[in-house]
Amino acid sequence: MSRVLWLPILGLAGLLAMAPEARGQATPYIGFVYPAGGQQGTTFQVRLGGQRLNDTDGAIVTGPGVSAKLVEFYRKLSNQEVTLLREQLRELNPRSRGRQGSRAKQWAQGAARQDEATKKTIAKIEKRIAEWVNRPACAALSEIALVEVTIAPDAEPGAREIRLVTPRGTTNPMVFHVGQVPEVTRKAMRTSVFQVLGKEESALRKRPDDEVEDRITVPCTMNGQIASGEVNHYRFEARKGQRLVISTAARELIPYIADAVPGWFQPVLTLYDTEGKELAFNDDFRFKPDPTLYFEVPEDGEYVLAIIDAIYRGREDFIYRVTIGEVPFVTSIFPLGGRVGDPASIEMNGWNIEKAKLLPVPEDAGPGVHLIAAQNEGGFVSNHVPFELDTLPECLDKESNNDSAHAQKVKLPIIVNGRMDRPNDWDVFQVEGRAGDTIVAEVNARRLDSPMDSLLKLTDAKGKLLAFNDDHDDPGSGLNTHHADSYLMAKLPADGTYYVHLGETARNGGEAYAYRLRLSAPQPDFALRVVPSSVSLRSRGSAAVSVYAIRKEGFTGPLKLSLKDPPAGFSSSTVTLPEDKEMVRLALKASLRGTKEPVSLAVEGRALIGEQEVAREAVPAEDRMQAYLWRHLVPAEDLEALVYNQSYQPSPKRVPPPLTAEEKAKAVPADPAVQTKFTKRQVAGRLRQLRALYEEWLITDDFYNRKVAECEAVL
Q1: Range of the domain at 626
Q2: Alpha-carbon gap, residue 481 to 336, rounded angstroms
Q3: Which among 30, 47, 316 is positioned nearest to 193, based on CA atoms?
Q4: What is the pTM of this model?
Q5: Are residues 413 and 349 in the same domain?
Q6: Is the dihedral of CA 139, 142, 147, 152 positive or negative?
């Protein structure tokens, strides 16, 4: 199944351009989901934190075999609401008054005689108060939705996306994994408290001793959240000779965190024996921040795995999934791609892959980047790696082609699949050109998960340097913050022979240092991104999305943008993105009064390139900030649209009994001065708070009516 991997990175200019749009939208948002996945054939509860989630009524997960339903929603309570809840709790539960001695014993005996409804109300209030934080570390994570997820036994393993659905739109997506081994999930963190400079200790997580270390059975996946200054430990038994892969998903789950430097959770794995001796350590897997360990067990016994943040930060969105077991793990493939329609013979390297087979790209797959994985005899699927398909002719590099004297002759256009076989290796290719021709040399390596940091040079027959490039910013590679792939485009000065030199910047090499080198004339083209990946429209109304154009190799023409094959009830006018612009707003229209669930839309752009009209579908994306400054467009699977009726008012979840004359009489203030103490606005706010708490079944009929009567008495 084709899937775009990397999307654009935007610098300070992009920040300034997109900031007004980001500020103007008040769409529902989620910042984490915990746990961020589960095992096939299980049902479990996940916790999603965000903001603007009022009246959340559901959740959706992409792909077949996974369903989700809302269990409970905790909005952020005000100080006044918490005071009301504590007052209600004191009335319902005498033990909460903190009395001692025989009086406390009498109250405890009275509490034992409470009916089940009262006990449930007490438990619910205590839970809400325990969850409440007056000043959260991150307000954008302070509203909590609890969702029950069911994964079918035959659900395809791998990454999905999960969103919450509210009456006024869907949230942004978050990564959600379907796993194959048993899962262990640590107790969820409550909302983190804001840390005051000099008093950080008071905001640190107070974890009970029995939660410091968990005992696990291999194989399994461990789900956890790292709090500030916290270390998570896992103890397990292993047998001599076991070949354990310990792989982490953390940055993969939440690629960018706006208020964290370097912009994501940076986990570190350390493996110890029972005496505390360090046996293995990893803080990055090659260029990826998520660490992976390979450990051949030296002897039978117990081992302890520790995970921390590299600089001991933490919060509820510092989430990880660590899988441990004798499972297949692909470290590299070769070649990194092939030609559309041609059967591919792919060499695979990795751990525990001796009895695994690489699952091929579907025969009908078109140009683009696809994800493939290996599967062992037990049916366990490995990590996924990218594989690129193109339409140009392809060949392999032939050693020894380390200098101009031994250069490999190639005919344009061509894609060369090669490797930096050893440290300080160079691959040199000889091409023929004519005066005035333009040649393009583009390396695709880091964008295909190769650790290679490429370097390109173009020289003439005498060795004169004509063009040079190390790193080239690719606006279509938004999750990759080091743009290590090289690119150059040069006009040839004369007829003759030219040489393209390809090297590795740090002079590294080996079987993993693979590349795809395209040598051709310019191929003018464009790609599109549509932001955000969810849009809300009022009944028979309209809303706008931003469409960004990524122009390639000299294409500067205008683009015509519109919805592609819109479903019934949706439409858009065609807008033109002028030659000198990179972004335009596209208005989407709805003729419907409302939709029961989100509808997937697609935006398409058309342009004339040469004499041919070319159509490209826009990739949905989310505008995300990294470390207070840089902005990126992070990919999403779908563009979800929801039409809502702005005048719709949901039916009351609970209807209070009418106030009696006696209740009203008791609530009249004895002092007339009290009647002018509160403004109408303050009283109206108090009534809204009471109604909200009442509909959430947090206060009783009696308590609600008494407080309402008090409000009405001072008006």
Answers
A1: 526-644
A2: 21
A3: 316
A4: 0.90
A5: no
A6: positive
